[in-house]
Amino acid sequence: MSDDANILSDNPTVLKAMIAALQAENARMPATLQAHEQLVQALCLRIAKLQKQAFGKSSEKIEREIAQLELTLEDLLVAVAEQSGGPIKEDEPAETDNPVAEPRPRRRPRVSDATPRERRELDPGPCCPDCGGNLRVVAEDVSELLDLVAAQMKVIQIARVKKSCRRCERMVQPAAPSRPIPGSMAGPGLLAQILVSKFDDHLPLYRQHKIFARMGADIPDSTLLGWCGRAMKVLTPVIERIEAEVMAAPILHADDTPIRVLERSRRDRGFGKGVKQGRIWAYVSDQRPWAGTAPPGVVYRFSPDRKGEHPQHHPQDSGGILQADAYAGFNPLYAPRADGSRQFREAACWAHLRRDLDRIGKLYDVEREIAGQSAELRKAARQTHSRPMVDAFNRLLKKDFERATQRKSFWSQLISARKWGVFGKFEADFPVPRPRCPVARTFSAAC
Asked: Which distant-in-sequence residues (6+ apart) come within 8 Å of 282 by Cβ?
């Protein structure tokens, strides 16, 4: 304290400047603490997500923890924005003394060119407000305001006028227009909203019922269920056409994921017991990474289990290149036929290996850099950057394979020697190391 007092100046101007600096530093303290809290929450969320990747589907507790951390971090960020009070710079990162004050840089909202735009022109008038002279246009300042037209339920009354002929007394009336679901009140726009909300936004029908009720339309849950089922039937030809286009692509990506499915026969077993695990199989066609012009698409197929018969049946009319993981159910699709041909050429997937080996992750880094480029540029980049890494990895695998083969051969000879009672001669020729494996130690002691 005495050292701090000795460095203080006797100049009142200098002292006032130091006081102002201290006050400014104290004012920044709450923002710094909030920034630290944001960083802690962001790191906790990151750890939870990494734990989920490590433990996978077996840890539902981690999934709940992730959801809770996301809500906590979101509430904290909203509170910080509420207290800031200043204008939000949406086109550039916020300038702060602490680099961790904003976990993610702010950016300007992106709106597609297809979004409708409404021009509202503010004209100062034809005359100068000071002298009354005529005004001429010099330039204009244009800014954009992003707004939303609130959804509104609308009843369309279809009136079919009926007329009679004065001469022959014939009754004439236009035919009723077709409806997506015959006999129902659902229009195409309403059905599209219901289906997108349910299957794309994962909004259950009972919640949509409440939303529509706020709009003034009381649509029973049973009616919504019926509309969904009938709408899916109406869309079946479109779905089949999309499936045919996707499955006919020259290159397919296939994968599966577990899904919890309700099972009516297990309802009486209690909460959480009336479910079983099914599988969702995804077949993707996406040519955008290599500058393809075909639109991307995906086909989903459900199966109650993961038997190999499912992936063998789904693409039975397809061919070309299939990229999938090492699941044995795909192997028959790569096997040679009686005439020597194959249904698919295998393109093995290294995604799972990438999670454990950094050297595979570097290959994916190269692919991200060349995505969307022409075939010539991608090939040149792979020859320059990827091929040396693949060759080095290949040499490493060969060495590991040779060591594993020698180790397997050694233990095979050891077991044979023990079986035929010549272990003493074998031990003289090949000294037996002290194995670390408890099972192997037991075997060695018995010998």
From this structure: 253, 254, 255, 256, 257, 298, 299, 300
What lies within 8 Å, CB to CB, of 363 at 6+ separation is 350, 354, 386, 389, 390
Give the distance, in angstroms, between the CA of residue 346 and the centroid of all CA atoms in the same chain. 25
Q: How far is Cα of residue 425 from the mean position of the Cα atoms in its chain?
A: 62
Is the pLDDT at 61 greater than 80, yes or no? no
Name which of 220, 213, 227 is nearest 153 in CA terms.
213
Q: 288 by DSSP, 3-state: which?
A: helix
Work out whether strand 344-348 and strand 163-164 pair parallel, antiparallel, or are unpaired. unpaired
Report in angstroms the alpha-carbon separations of 69 from 43, 47, 57, 99, 334: 10, 10, 19, 22, 44
For residue 233, what are its two tokens?
């039937």
* 387-420 pLDDT tens trace: 999 899 889 888 888 887 877 776 676 566 555 5
Report the predicted TM-score, pTM, of the whole model to 2 decimal places: 0.60
Distances (CA, A) of 178 to 160, 185, 194, 303, 365: 13, 12, 20, 36, 53
Chain-centroid distance of CA 345 in Å reads 28
Q: Which two tokens stand for residue 153?
A: 């339920």
The residues near 293 (Cβ < 8 Å, ≥ 6 apart) are 287
Least confident of 82-86, 205-209, 334-338: 82-86
Residues 152, 190 contacting (CB under 8 angstroms): no
Q: pLDDT, tens digit, for every residue of 2-38?
A: 444 455 556 667 766 777 777 676 666 666 666 666 6
Classify residue 280 as left (phi > 0), alpha (psi -120 to 50) or beta. Answer: beta
